[in-house]
Each structure stands twice: as C-alpha cells, then as structure tokens.
C-alpha cells in the first residue's frame, strides 16, 4: 500500500508574518537586510520584522510562529558565518517538532568579492530550509553579465540565481561600500519573494 502524503500545513491566510533573520559583524549585511525589508514592506497583507541572529536566538519561541522567513548571512570563507550558523543550530528543536514544516523561505548573502564563493552560503541556507521542510523561493531574475558590455547598474549584476547575492567593497563603510544596483536588487528581492509568500498562503 502507498504511504499517505501528509496534509500540507499551510492554511489560507489573508495576513501573513515574515521574519528577516540576518547576521552581520560590520553592518554590511545589515544594510542589505534593511533594503530587503524595504522591498518586503511594500507588499500588502504582510507584517515584516527584522532580527539580527542574536535577537532571533533570544526570541526563539516567537520566531517559530512566523509564516515565512528570509535568511541572510555574510559569506565568510565561502560559507555561512558562525553567527548565522549559531542561529540555525538554535532552531534544532524546530527540526524535531517539524514546526517550520511547509512554511516558505528565501535567502541572501553579501560579501566583499563579486563572487567570493557566495554560492556556498546560498547552498547552505537552501539546505537548512529544505531540512526544516520549507519551500525555498529563488531570486527570480535572469543573469545580466553574459554580454561584452557589463552593466554595473543592472539588477542582479552579480548574476546569481539561487538567492540574492550582493557585494560590499572592503574599503567602504556600510553606507558607501555597496553598489546602488545591489541595494535596488535587495529591494526587488524583498518585494518579489514576499509576493510569492503571500500567493503561497492564498
Ligand atoms: C573571516 C572572514 C572571511 C571572509 N570570507 C570571504 C569570502 O569567502 N568571500 C568574500 O567575498 N568575502 C569574504 N569576506 C568579506 C566579507 O564577506 C565582507 O566584508 C562582508 O561585507 C562583511 O559583512 P558584515 O559587515 O555583514 O559582517 C570575509 C570576511 C571575514 C571577516
């Protein structure tokens, strides 16, 4: 006899809650997270809260109540930062109780190099979401640098697909280090994935 597929745990909701959880040591990823928040906040029928990883750990019971998540980490050594990993590991109980099962999520990373092995971080965020049973939403933009003229002003100029990937040059402050196009892409990403979240609960 075939194994029955369990009910999908996502009832219809006219209002959904989104938590953006990020880690940032020097506030570059924080700056990106704020632009993701700006984009997500444009969507109707949604409340969006921003947490750094430490605050999220301190409010772990509240975190599991959210309907949807956007996780962000700087890329350190081609990987999620230790502070973000700490948050992931603080949610081990959610894995055991399946409290995030069938929720919906997206991910982003920021680092100093244009690529800088950011894919490692996005893959780790994706894997975390999958292990928690969540549906993962990608960036949803085409690549922009496949032509001889590379447009720094284009959305998704870093040309990642599996999430938002932005660059903060190391010799700038959080206010000056990031290309305007990356900040626009962060805003686009926040709005785009939040629209998908809303559709998922409708
Ligand atoms: C320990 C460490 C490892 C890093 N590894 C990478 C890397 O693998 N690729 C990269 O492009 N940048 C790397 N960087 C640069 C950071 O990703 C970059 O400065 C980022 O903007 C810092 O974000 P934050 O201010 O949110 O902490 C590294 C920085 C540190 C401190």
UniProtKB/TrEMBL annotation:
PROSITE patterns: FLAVODOXIN_LIKE. Transmembrane segments: none annotated. Residues 18-165 form the Flavodoxin-like domain. Belongs to the WrbA family. Gene3D superfamilies: 3.40.50.360. SUPFAM superfamilies: Flavoproteins. Pfam families: FMN_red (PF03358). Coiled coil: none annotated. InterPro entries: Flavodoxin/NO_synth, Flavoprotein-like_sf, FMN_Rdtase-like_dom. One of its GO terms (molecular function) is NAD(P)H dehydrogenase (quinone) activity. PANTHER family: FLAVODOXIN-RELATED PROTEIN WRBA-RELATED, FLAVOPROTEIN-LIKE PROTEIN YCP4-RELATED. GO terms for cellular component: membrane. This is Flavodoxin-like domain-containing protein.
